[in-house]
Write a structure and sequence with these properties.
single chain; about 25% strand; 3 helices; about 110 residues; alpha+beta; four-stranded antiparallel sheet; 2 domains
């Protein structure tokens, strides 16, 4: 953890402590009240594939030009399902640490 954040617990650390019986829900709620949890650090599971230079990338599908409120057609839905099947076949699930930046976007900082 960085100095700026002091001794705050990350969500992942709290989850591990809870699963191992070290913390119960009352203690977690007390940590939230005392602001001992660092809400900026989040661990998520992502589907990643390794690149030729040893880095990891996340394959995504985007329909450019399709507005947010425009509903998908049946063909688009089928294409997305086929893409998801390929992603599951060719990627591996990894835990990724993320930090939420001030502009509300997330940045991958480390693969656990």
């Amino acid at each position: 953890m960085s100095r700026r954040n002091g001794n705050l617990l990350t969500q992942n650390q709290v989850n591990i402590l809870f699963k191992n019986g070290v913390l119960d829900m009352n203690q977690i709620e007390k940590c939230v009240e005392l602001k001992l949890l660092n809400k900026r650090h989040v661990t998520q599971k992502k589907r990643m594939m390794k690149t030729s230079d040893g880095r990891y990338t996340e394959p995504i599908l985007s329909f450019v030009g399709n507005g947010r409120k425009t509903p998908y057609t049946d063909l688009m839905k089928q294409f997305k399902e086929d893409f998801d099947t390929l992603v599951e076949m060719y990627t591996e699930e990894m835990e990724v640490n993320k930090v939420k930046t001030k502009n509300r976007k997330s940045k991958i900082i480390e693969i656990v």
